[in-house]
Design goal:
Blueprint (H helix, E strand, L loop, with lengths): L1 H34 L3 E5 L3 E6 L16 H8 L10 E2 L5 E2 L13 E7 L2 H12 L4 E9 L11 E4 L2 E3 L7 E2 L5 E5 L2 E9 L3 E8 L6 H8 L25 E9 L5 E5 L4 H12 L2
Parallel strand pairs: 5-13
Antiparallel strand pairs: 1-2, 2-5, 3-4, 6-12, 6-13, 7-11, 8-9, 8-10, 11-12, 13-14
Length: 279
Amino acid sequence: MRGAEYSDVRFFSIGPLRGLFTFAIIILNMMENIFSKIKIIFENDAYLVINKPAGLVVHPDGRTHEPTLVDWLLNKYPNIKNVGEPILLKSGEVIIRPGIVHRIDRETSGVLVVAKTQEMFNCLKKQFRNNSVSKKYNAFVYGEVKLQDGEGSGIIDRSIGRSAKDFRMWSAQRGARGKEREAITEYSIIKATREYSYIEARPKTGRTHQIRVHFKAINHPVVADRLYAPKKEALLGFERLALHAREISFLNLEGNRVTFEAPYPDDFMNAVKMAINKE
């Protein structure tokens, strides 16, 4: 009887532990896979510029549990733990964001700058606040985007507010709720077909999902955007959002403007080749 009782206790105690161990192994494998895709473009004592892979969240949001860029930063640069500003969630949870002064979406690839000192963090934060950081994105959007005759670029000047349909979404269309904030995006067309357009977007403000929301508002959502165009078929082989942060330009601590460019990942490069070669 004692043996049976002991056996039962051991079964119930080891079972959950085995599950936790398996979960931990899965997370570690995920981390190893996604972290191996992070490429350092430039770094010095003040800041780090990386090419973020699609599929990687910049920092935790308190809702999901997955590898983040913050995990990679803390492992590789533990001294920057106290650089930057944490955020306090409504739940009371504190989210640390070492060196993080701006973000790009999980499914967006491309260039991101991280501060390694508080002085550089403050320098970058000021520039982002006054919109003096220059950013260029490339994207594929649905449909043929057209410009007015004689114009080499277009501009979307539409304020952005919360979507009334989905708490995850933002809107630049009638019916947005809450406070609407100014949002401006300039863009140029690199190649346009009836099915899609290959564009360069230059956001002049830094609103959440700005490029995605603005092109949705003019009826040309970003290709493979599962949130803003869930019913549309993905094109050009994309299995993630067809958006890449190509270039960033800002002032360093010496007051000199520096510019960094993130090469396309394979999926985006393949799409570019298909678009350019299409008659």
